[in-house]
Amino acid sequence: MKDMKVIDLSIPLGIGTPPWPTxxxxxxxxxxxxxxxxxxxxxxxxxxxxxxxxxxxIHFYTPGKxxxxxxxxxxxxxxxxxxxxxVAGEYDVYTSQMIEDRVExxxxxxxxxxxxxxxxxxxxxxxxxxxxxxxxxxxxxxxAEWAKKKKLRWIGVxxxxxxxxxxxxxxxxxxxxxxxxxxxxxxxxxxxxxxxxTDDKYQLMHLxxxxxxxxxxxxxxxxxxxxxxxxxTIGCFPWRFVDGESSIARIVAFVDEARYQELMEKKSRCExxxxxxxxxxxxxxxxxxxxxxxxxx
Length: 297
What we know:
Structural class: alpha/beta
Order of helices and strands: EEHEEHEEHEHEHEHHHHEEEHH
Number of strands: 12
Largest sheet: 7 strands, mixed, barrel
Low-confidence stretches: none
Strand content: 15-25%
Mean pLDDT: 97
Strand order of the largest sheet: 4-10-9-7-5-11-12
Distance between the termini: 33 Å
Radius of gyration: 19 Å
C-alpha cells in the first residue's frame, strides 16, 4: 500500500446520526472535564447499527463468525463501486444485470452499490430520514443468488439496509409506506408487495447470505460520488470485536497519488456538505460523468 491515498466512504457519526429504525441511537455524555479532573472523558452508548457499519454473520446466523474473526484479507481487497441511481429509484428492485451493464464484477470482489440514496443521509443538505431508511431500492433473490455465484467478499450499500426496506420489519412499522410501495409494485412490476416479497424471501440479504459468509456494510457515503462506476481497492475497518454481531466501521478506498490528485481536483469544483464531503444532489455533473463511464453491454 506504499504511496497510497485514502478516500473516505463513511458518513459522519454523531448524536444526530439515525440508527436503523427502533435501534438504540448514539448517546454521548461527559463523565469528567478538564477542570477539575485534568482531562475530558466521555461515555458512549449505542447499538451496532448506526452510521456506517458492518453487519456480521452472527447478526442473523448463530454459528457464524463474530466481527473479530473476519481477517484483513477479507475486509480489504479489490472491488468495484457501481452507481444504479439511473435505473433504481424509490421502492424499485435492482438486479444483477443492472450492475453488470455498468461495471465488471470479478469473482471474489467487494461490491459497493450506490443507489444515490446517500443524498438523503443525515449529513447531506438534502437529508430525509424517512426516504433514506424506508424508500430506497433493494434487491430480490435473483441478486442474492448472483452474489453467491460471484463469491463476493462483502457488499456495501449507501442506504439504510442491504435488503429492500419493504422486505424487512419496516413493512409492518410503516403501513402507509407499505401501501405506497404496493401501489408502485403493481404499476411497475404487475405484482403487489406481498407477491414480490413473499414470506420465504424475508430479509434474504441477511438470512440467506450470512450462512454463506457474504455479509454487508450499510450506510456508506462520504466521498463515494468521486468513485462511481470505478474499480478500486476497498477497505472496511470495524472494531476487532470479540462476540460482536456487527460493528461501526470506517470504510475507505485506496488510490495512488496520481489518481488521488485527479479526484481532489474534481472535489475542489464540488459543493460540499458541512462535514466536507461531496454533496450528492448538488453535483449532478459527477453522476453524469459516472454514467458516461459505465460499461455498455
